[in-house]
Amino acid sequence: MDYKAIQELIKTLSQSNVTTLEIESDGVRIKMCKDENKRKSNNEVEFIKQDEKIENVSDDASTSIPKENEIVVDDKNIEIVKSPIVGTFYESSAPGKEPFVKVGSKVNVGDTLCIIEAMKLMNEITSEVNGEIVEILVENEDMVEYGQPIFKINTKS
């Protein structure tokens, strides 16, 4: 690869929204990166397909992308129970004991749904609504994050 071709690649990279370019040709490998903090817009996505021009697609206001650990529910009767702390999820009070709730269990306000252990403290998570457990979103002994959805409760039941 000659000097002029490298200059052309640098020029092309600087004028595009691509942040990293890696090329291997004739036994020479070149990797170019540019500072992402200097990008014009953080919500532009660039799609590159073979034999097509580059096109920029910007997010519009009507498009919403769920964040990590976010559950999107269209049914207004479904209540999502989220973890109030970071810790370990336990479905029962002790190993081998019956879980507090299962899918299909009827729950009332104040009923224990699970325990989340944080720093050797056992925190009982209770229901804030009356309804039926329709989905348990984590497994026993899973680590859960603050705000992570752990149960879906149908409040119309």
UniProtKB/TrEMBL annotation:
GO molecular function list: acetyl-CoA carboxylase activity
Pathways per UniProt: Lipid metabolism; fatty acid biosynthesis
Record's GO cellular component terms: acetyl-CoA carboxylase complex
Domain Lipoyl-binding stretches: 78-154
PROSITE patterns: BIOTIN, BIOTINYL_LIPOYL
Gene3D superfamilies for the chain: 2.40.50.100
Function: This protein is a component of the acetyl coenzyme A carboxylase complex; first, biotin carboxylase catalyzes the carboxylation of the carrier protein and then the transcarboxylase transfers the carboxyl group to form malonyl-CoA.
Protein name: Biotin carboxyl carrier protein of acetyl-CoA carboxylase
Organism field: Clostridium tepidiprofundi DSM 19306
Taxonomic placement: Bacteria, Bacillati, Bacillota, Clostridia, Eubacteriales
Gene: accB
